[in-house]
Amino acid sequence: MMRFVAQRAIWGVLVIMSVVTLVFFLIFVAGDPAVTILGPQARAEQIADFKAKKGLDRPVPEQFMSYLGLMPCIRKDSPKYHREDGSPGFCGILQGDLGESYSHHESVARVIGHRLPRTLLLASLAVLFELFIGLSAGIFAALRRNRWSDTAIMFATFVGISLPTYVTGPIALLLFAFLLGWFPFGGYGVDPVDHIYHALLPALVLAIAGAATYARVMRGELIETLRHDHVRTAKAKGMPMRQVIIKHAIRNALLPIATLVGLSLPFLVGGAIITEKIFAWPGLGLLTIEAIESLDAPVIMAVVLMFGIAVQVGNLLADIAVAALDPRIRLG
Amino acid sequence: MLLLIAILLIAWVVARFPKAPLGPRYVGAGHQTPQPGGTLIFSAGSNIHTLDPHFAYDTLSTAACRLLYDGLLDYDYDGNMIPSLAADLPTISDAGRVFRFRLRDGIKFHNGREILADDISWSLHRLLSKAIGSPGYPFYKSIVGAPAYHKGEVERIEGIVVIDDKTIEFRLDEADQTFLNALAMPFAYPLAKEHVEKLEEAEGRDAVGRHPVGAGPFAFSGWERGVQVDLERFEQYWAPQARPDRMIFLENISADVASARFRNGDLDIIYRPSKVNRLFLRASEPWAPYRAEAPSAAVFALGLNCELPPFDNVHVRRAVAFAIDRSKLERLDPGQVIAAGQVLPPMLAPYDAELPEKQTFDLERAKEQMRLAGLPDGPAQPVTLWVRGEGEVQVAQLFQQDLKAIGIEMDLKMVSFATYLKETGRPRVAQAAFTGWHQDFPDPSNFMDILFHSRSIHPENSENRSFYRNNELDAILDRARAEVDRALRLALYAKANAILARDAPWAFLYYPVDMFAWQPYVKGFRPHPVWLNEYRNVWLDLPRKRVSQAIYQDEAAP
Hints:
Helix content of chain A is 73%, strand content 0%. Chain A is mainly α and 332 residues long. In chain A, helix 5 runs antiparallel to helix 10 and helix 10 packs antiparallel against helix 12. The longest helix of chain A has 38 residues. In chain B, strand 7 and strand 8 form a beta hairpin. Chain B has 18 helices and 22 strands.
């Protein structure tokens, strides 16, 4: 088990490294951050000053090594740039320093510190909704197989999987916020309870596709499991149907769902980019869009890094969860 | 068949959709006296640039600084100057050259320290220093020694004299009553010295704008750039009044989103809703008590170059002023504009709705003026109007037809804003230009001196872009600027206002109108003639109660 985790972790780090490298160089292809941040009216000396302050005037490979923390700090506005004894300081990601945002005038860690909890709130609510709605609908449909309610649920899941959040989001806003007035029209709210209230509608929208997928998977698995010998045996021993389903059937059917949830985490964050934009939810997703629009390189890099880690951790957790649920799988 | 059923089903569902909210979703609890508490939420369409008053020159930064900071002087809802941190209006001596202020007792910064005359002086020194480079400097250069200090030649401004802890005096090079208006601008709001110095040392110059300590009715509690500014009530503010506990100023909320949020009850006050929502709010009966439209302190016009033919002839200019049918604009965008016939906007004294010389649409008089000019059939050559963008092209096209009626062919020339500024500021370049002015402070001089005094004509970057020269007007404006007696001043400006309407260096077009709406539980808000978003006196009638939209339908029914 440990060996498997270690292998996967090393593999994950390699993937993240390559993504970070690729994006770092892509930003320089996309344009000049200094010009984008300072605007078209900026004078040449302002741009030069900005570049010197951020180390953007150095060769790109040096910038990259410094960003990683393998070469001395080249950002003149960083406290690590000068050391008391004159020896160079480091200010890269290996030192846990994500740099300072160009457009927020704050450390990237602080900017993300603001945003990450909001995205996590949204994503965790969405997972809850996905599981609750998806599993109940799936079980319900499986137990009423081929009746009209099963057909209706399967049709609904088909629609749910087909509709992207940029369609369902605005419709939900219009219907449930503007016309019915049940939810706020986007935004984040002013206190913790208000935050959750504001998160409900975007989380529901974010959960639609996942819930529909889970419902279909759950239905299929459950129907399959109900045919298995062990279920038939349980039934034959006179176990109440309710217990048979809960103890024997559902537990088995949950296996692929666990994998799916783990694999879906990065997609939740990805989907959150669009959902956050639609609902003006100031989380990581919205931050990503803003950062890309303004070529705020340190923020883009940090977000890529975080998404990379999220994907890898999600996959790892999915594998571990499957192992824990299925006694036949032994890792390592 | 199945398809048909599906379509019918969808149509049935859609028909049963609830309607968009017709009126407010929430009403107040019914308190008659101001209540403290609650959170006021309002928004803006773009970013707040800074919370440092020494850099606040745009409306959003100003709106936020108005809550965080306070100054010696302020304006009431009639546009009159009133003391704020000052105990009273200043005593004026030396023929309007010296202003002495006494500070109010018990005024404090948010860090709890009392504000002294030294703080006022120190803040103005920061504002006017070369190192800071504030855009506010030109408004204060009449203080004795300010230009030398700004250039870095001297250590202190001679004309700012701290008499004692509570008294400060300003000495000017020449009598200028608009200096008081300058002191009422957010540029002159004092900052806590010890806080600024500590911050600037630790985090650099723009740190002050990120973590301000002022003397306003609300103290800073957080700013997530591009998302929102959080403020909390400052209990020791000198004017005790029931105010909300918190204020949240949301940034980057587009007009469409803000309008939907407002109608949904998520925003407490809205300013400049999107067009469709503006039309809705104007027509809506339930919203009628909770909305207001007010002209903003600005005027738009066709600037006519008085040095270039045919507009060097006053009769041609007057003909243009009479030929323009301004009601077309009011019809094009109902409620968004008011026809203008003089330079002063309606809220600024001595505006005169009945001004005999005011420019109005009158085709006969226009033709009469063309005859007087000796051009009954119009000039031989078409004239060229410089415009800055599509919006102005649309407006100008409305009037092309009107000018054709008096024989003037008008071509449009669209240029970038930068080109426009550069070229129209040079003599004898642009024959006519779409132009306008937003006031910096509520005084007629801010319109007339800057736009029409011959002193504002330069080889480059003229502010007087119609190159109008009139010795009589110059003399009136110079006298008015120095005149201490307010009634006399206004009489002089009234005279100048009439001259400008008659001589028509600008054919005035319209005053833009702003719309505001607020929730029924938001009390104490009304448009302010000077400050665009003025929330200092707002209180919330909480807890708010949700009301069914059905009551509005009942009202609409016969």
